[in-house]
Write a structure and sequence with these properties.
The complex is a heterodimer. By secondary structure, chain A is mostly helical. Chain A contains twelve helices and two strands, in the order H-E-E-H-H-H-H-H-H-H-H-H-H-H. The chains are: A mainly alpha, B mainly alpha.
């Protein structure tokens, strides 16, 4: 003990710990290298691209500029951003209302049926996105099922034009992302301590008040998670506006696509992509803050020591 | 819970309506794939002729083969790297938020952003693009998904049995093969099936990293260009087959690894 060094067991533990660290680093290295080379570096490259000028014949001219970012703020493009946010916001709102109602109904079903319902609610989510979008073209086209249903109930006029409208884009987004909202809302609803609602009713609150003052606040984290998911995926969406909007409803995703594949203005496309990422990060951080604040309340409500 | 008949009826109505909304579009699509008539939207008798005409369409068969190659290779690489990554993270007691964000990023980054990033990257390096670049790109998100499925399984893993195995003289490899792997195997297979489905279905990133020419067209790219031309019963038949494949793979994955995907 004279040298004041580590006791043998501490030294042993230290050796084991550093060995674990080494092993862990070795195991993670290939995957992290892959992610760095094929995600971090390319994304950094796009960020850098956004600060360069477009060459006269397409291509890139390597002089520093902030022009691309000021062009993003140009009323024409800012308008497309706002439009995308509005479409994504509407889709989010509708998906949350339907998804919450569905999750509530599932969580009120008999216990043994709940996993089955949940599985079938999520199943469509795992089939091809393009195909799910195509299914809406089949439904909404001028001679599609909706038109035929209208004819069947006696409608004789021109077939309504439902495809290639903003409504079609919103329907497609809601349809594609609804399963996730159901999942996100079901999680807190199923963990809710039923005694809380009972207590509220025993204290004289109406069913509506109980829902508004007890159930809803406790399930806000689930709603927020679902809403953020739908919004983030919708605002950057490219396929749905292209197929169901028929190219008439430009959203940010389509704009980025055009800059890279048709207009050949990569620096501007890169600036648009960065703006998209910035919006997403802001939304995600707002949700993380909300979740942190709500976590305390939920812990109390999940009942007892361990639920 | 008090369940008045009115409340019960309301809840049932919601379930019926939501499931109708989720399944009617798919059901119509599938039903019309068996439609004898050339008109894609009006029923005129049962037929398998659209499936038969698919089998004779070389462009679609080539696309299907390309998709299979991309999905199998990228799944194999992603399963290996993602599993090692998951074990590497879970075996240490603490890790930084940066690491967590790096692994989470591929799952939330918009497809279009990763697509243009990789396109810029490959063209700046003068890499000839084709199936190999699609594979490189698909591994990025696939490994993140495999990792998260395996990590979920490892959360309840008791690391002291690994220590015990080492103390008893087993090599690291033997310990992995005899102790760790049997525990995580269902999650590894589930992760691989998930990765396979994601890769089969992925469109935008493949579209940007496939390069020029039709040689490396994948099935979703083929479907996209067919949809842009209009509705044909052939697309319905193809869509039905693709859906059947992904739903089978996912159902299998879910069975193997109860709860990870569903919750």
């Amino acid at each position: 003990m004279a040298d004041g060094g580590l006791s043998p067991s501490a030294a042993e533990r230290y050796r084991k710990l550093s060995q674990t660290r080494l092993r862990s680093n070795l195991l993670m290295a290939p995957a992290l290298a892959w992610l760095t080379a094929l995600m971090v570096v390319p994304c950094a490259l796009v960020l850098a691209l956004a600060f360069f000028r477009r060459g006269i014949y397409g291509g890139i001219e390597y002089t520093f500029t902030l022009e691309n970012f000021s062009q993003v703020l140009d009323p024409l493009y800012a308008g497309i951003f706002l439009n995308s946010a509005r479409i994504a916001g509407t889709a989010t709102l509708i998906a949350v209302i339907i998804g919450y109602a569905a999750a509530y109904a599932i969580s009120a079903a008999p216990r043994r049926l709940q996993p089955v319902f949940l599985f079938f609610a999520v199943l469509p989510f795992w089939s091809n996105y393009l195909i799910r979008t195509y299914a809406w073209i089949v439904l909404l086209n001028r001679e599609g099922l909706v038109t035929q249903l209208l004819r069947w109930i006696g409608y004789t006029g021109e077939p309504p034009s439902m495809l290639y409208t903003e409504g079609a884009v919103i329907a497609g987004l809601v349809y594609n992302y609804l399963p996730f909202v159901i999942l996100a809302c079901y999680a807190p609803l199923s963990r809710l301590n039923p005694e809380l609602a009972e207590a509220s009713r025993d204290l004289g609150a109406s069913a509506l008040t109980t829902f508004r003052r007890v159930i809803l606040p406790l399930t806000v984290p689930g709603i927020a998670a679902g809403a953020v998911f739908v919004f983030v995926l919708s605002i950057g969406n490219f396929v749905t506006p292209a197929l169901l909007g028929g190219g008439r409803f430009q959203m940010i995703g389509n704009l980025v696509y055009d800059q890279f594949l048709t207009a050949n203005d990569w620096p501007f496309g890169a600036a648009l992509a960065m703006a998209l990422i910035a919006i997403m990060l802001a939304v995600l951080m707002a949700q993380a803050l909300l979740a942190d604040r709500a976590a305390g309340r939920t812990r109390e409500a999940e009942g007892g020591a361990d639920g | 819970m008090t369940s008045s008949p009115a409340r019960l009826l309301g809840l049932r109505t919601i379930l019926v309506l939501v499931f109708a909304f989720l399944y009617i579009p798919i059901a119509v699509l599938v039903a019309l794939s068996f439609n004898a008539g050339g008109l894609p939207t009006a029923w005129s008798g049962f037929s398998l002729k659209w499936y038969a005409s698919l089998a004779g369409n070389t462009a679609i068969l080539q696309a299907a083969l390309n998709t299979l190659i991309v999905a199998l290779v990228s799944t194999a690489i992603a399963t290996l790297l993602g599993t090692l990554l998951a074990i590497g993270i879970e075996m240490r007691r603490q890790y930084g938020k940066g690491l967590e964000a790096l692994i989470f990023a591929p799952m939330i980054i918009p497809d279009i952003v990763l697509a243009i990033a990789l396109l810029s990257f490959f063209s700046m390096l003068d890499v000839t693009m084709g199936l190999h670049t699609i594979i490189l790109a698909h591994v990025v998100f696939n490994l993140a998904f495999v990792c998260s499925v395996v990590r979920a399984r490892l959360k309840s893993f008791d690391w002291s049995i690994v220590e015990a195995s080492a103390d008893l003289g087993a090599s690291a490899l033997t310990t992995f093969r005899r102790v760790t792997l049997p525990v995580i195997l269902p999650a590894v297979v589930a992760g691989a099936l998930l990765a396979f489905t994601l890769s089969v279905d992925e469109f935008i990133i493949a579209f940007f990293t496939a390069g020029a020419g039709r040689a490396s067209t994948t099935l979703p790219m083929q479907i996209y260009s067919m949809i842009r031309f209009g509705i044909t019963p052939e697309i319905n038949a193809l869509a039905t087959i693709v859906m059947a494949v992904s739903i089978t793979a996912l159902t299998l994955s879910q069975r193997l690894n109860r709860g990870v995907i569903g919750q």
